[in-house]
Amino acid sequence: MSAERIIRDLTAAIDVEIGGTRPHDIQVHDRRFYARVLGAGSLGLGESYMDGWWDCGDLPGLFYRIATGDVEHRLPRSPRLVAEALKARLLNLQSRRRSGRVADLHYDATIEAYQSMTDRWITLSCAYWKTARTLDEAQDAKLDLIARKLGLRRGDRVLDIGSGFGAFARFAAERYGCSIVGINVSQEQVRRARDLSRGLPIEYHISDYRETHAYWDGRPFDAVVSTGMFEHVGYKNHRVYMEIANRVLKPGGLFLLHTIGSNVTTTTNDPWFDRYIFPNGLLPSIRHIGTAIEGLFVMEDWHNFGADYEKTLVAWCENFERRWTGATTDRFFRMWRYYLLSAAGVGRSRTKQLWQIVLSKGGVPGGYLSVR
Fold first, then answer.
1. What does pTM read for this prediction?
2. Which residue among 45, 77, 247, 335 has its CA within the 20 to 30 Å range from the CA of 318?
């Protein structure tokens, strides 16, 4: 059977027609598309889109159908992808030596794209749309939600693991009167965060979370927060990460973990996202997190607002497209658009989640009251 016939049958099974007239149907411009997707799966699908070999008027709608139809697992696995999965099992792809790779290849190289798509805080994680109408309102609500879940008070010292452009640090300092220590492996993000935080009680360190000597002076923090960073830790390091968060937190203190999560436990990232967006990333599962916190923390609250990720990603893409000054045929433009809108479709499918988990060191006396 030809590659074209196989791909057409697969797409038909998820109600997607190649050459169809509906927004979520695929329009193929280069017939090499079929062999490329058959041979390389999601990597071939993404790369062929970047190269302009196909288009789709509704990428979220297409990827919603791909995710719910489990198309990736119906394709034959190429020897290259099998080798990548074996490498992830045998090696620590998120070791201390490798930890800066995502900053070098992604965050530092895409600073302008992130700034162009985000809100006024330059927040790099999912917004909270419970009552919000705009991205600014939704990110404000998310930052305040974190602060309220942690019960922050004036004068609290907070460790922000993976502090990005300093969105939460600036919010907590300005709105709650806290002092913040932020750590980040991205030199460019830290440079810009420092510029944005002038005059506030915030210090930033270019540091891996395992290098505690670089950011911790032995005084326990009142609270620890991490938003959108745990996805880069890797399952071989989850336990060490939790041990460090526990070590630097005061007895009875709270740790809030904000992370994208997977419904299934795996050791590998999507191949296209691994190559172009988040090198060596891995979405944790409930099992991953449960194993990592056992004996270290009391799980006080687990809040899932994964459905909000589609709204966030679509808003990011609208901002990015509106502020883009180059050609829409540019390979980077198509890559970034594919990243945002394919992830939006997966978010709609609910095969991936967004979790905010409140953990306590020793348990909250009388119990923790959930905040929404």
1. 0.91
2. 45
